[in-house]
């Protein structure tokens, strides 16, 4: 019996990266996993992710959906409820970056990041909370970032969206606590992914020199925290922001 046996998790933006790691970790703990991404096919990894989750002995299905689209989100959550029977865990992980200095940032760059990173979380929470209320409980996890806590030059749109996810989790936690629904945020720091591994070596070394643990985090570091926040081990934790950054921002 895993920590999440009998539960259904819905993870957005999970065909690759951190979202995929969370989906697989949830499956390894016994959860059935529904996940979304913009495209679910072989080329973009969605079908492979679906197979890897199912290979762990749980039910798995990927749903092609634009998380920033309110109507599409409502339809996806309806289908997940029909096909899985419940939605016990929601992880709002879908996200993009379109970096640029404020004076050079276009309206399109701003709007795209806010829509995918922040509005998508509103969409999925709005659709999932009624399901969780009928179940008398659930766990919502917003994937924020340390830049949402501290800001970052050249990422005003991204930082604002991640700060919004933190405030959204706190607000939902206050509203939904009486219904047994918890909401928290995870704020990763420098995580070793394909994106950060592509950075110039001198930039990577500069980042790591600022981290007391002297290494980047892994997607498993994030996924393990996501399991904790989804499980009954954190049943009295809500409205919190957990920074997973190796001590970079103490």
What does this protein structure show overall?
It is a single chain. This protein has 250 residues and is of the alpha/beta class. The protein has a single domain (8-240), classed as 3-Layer(aba) Sandwich (Rossmann fold), CATH 3.40.50.720. 46% of the residues lie in helices and 15% in strands. The protein contains nine helices and seven strands. The protein has helices at residues 17-28, 46-54, 70-84, 107-135, 146-150, 156-176, 194-197, 201-209, 219-230, and strands at residues 8-11, 32-37, 60-64, 89-92, 138-143, 181-188, 241-244. A seven-stranded parallel β-sheet has the order 3-2-1-4-5-6-7, with helices on both faces. Helix 1 (17-28) crosses helix 9 (219-230) and helix 3 runs parallel beside helix 4. The longest helix is centred in the middle third of the chain and has 29 residues, at 107-135. It is globular. The protein starts with 7 loop residues before the first strand and ends in a 6-residue tail after the last strand. The model has no long low-confidence stretch (mean pLDDT 96).
